[in-house]
Amino acid sequence: MTKQNLTISLSKSLLKRAKQLAVSKDISLSEFIREAMKKKIREDMGYKKAKKRQLRHLKTGLNLGTNGRLQISREELHARR
After folding, report:
1. Sorting pLDDT into bands at 50, 70 and 90, what band is 62?
2. 3-state secondary structure of 73
3. For every residue of 15-71, which 3-state class applies, written as one string?
4. Per residue in 34-51, pLDDT tens?
5. Residue 45 forms part of a structural domain
6. pLDDT of 11-25, one tens digit each?
7. Coil, strand or helix: which one is 74?
8. Cα dihedral value 39, 44, 45, 51, nearest 10
9. Domain for residue 69, yes or no?
10. In the chain, what's the furthest Cα-to-Cα distance?
11. How many domains does the chain have?
12. Half-sphere exposure in the Cβ direction for 29 (13 Å, CA)
């Protein structure tokens, strides 16, 4: 895997906190940022897959085993006892 350097600007407080977290995990700041970016990308991909799956369900509907026909009338369904 070819790596490429990246220059970013962070506030001093954010950079300080990121360094502290990296030290607490016993990894470099570069590794910490790389892992954070990977996690965000995985989350985004998972969200997109879930959204696509749910939109497909909305279009096709779910099989409720009724074949589009109810075995009970509306009146029976709403009858009060």
Report:
1. confident
2. coil
3. HHHHHHHHHHCCCCHHHHHHHHHHHHHHHHHHHHHHHHHHHHHHHHCCCCCCCCCCC
4. 999 999 999 999 999 999
5. yes
6. 999 999 999 999 999
7. helix
8. 150
9. no
10. 73
11. 1
12. 10
* Beta-carbon contacts of residue 25 (< 8 Å; ≥ 6 apart): 32
CA 64 distance to own-chain centroid: 27
**The pair of three-digit structure tokens given for residue 39, joined into one six-digit string:** 């996690």
Q: Is residue 77 part of a domain?
A: no
- For residue 67, being part of any structural domain is answered with no
- As a whole number of angstroms, the distance between CA 32 and CA 38 comes to 10
Angle at which helix 12-24 crosses helix 29-60, to 10 degrees, equals 90
The boundaries of the domain holding residue 20 are 12-62
Who has greater pLDDT, 47 or 65?
47
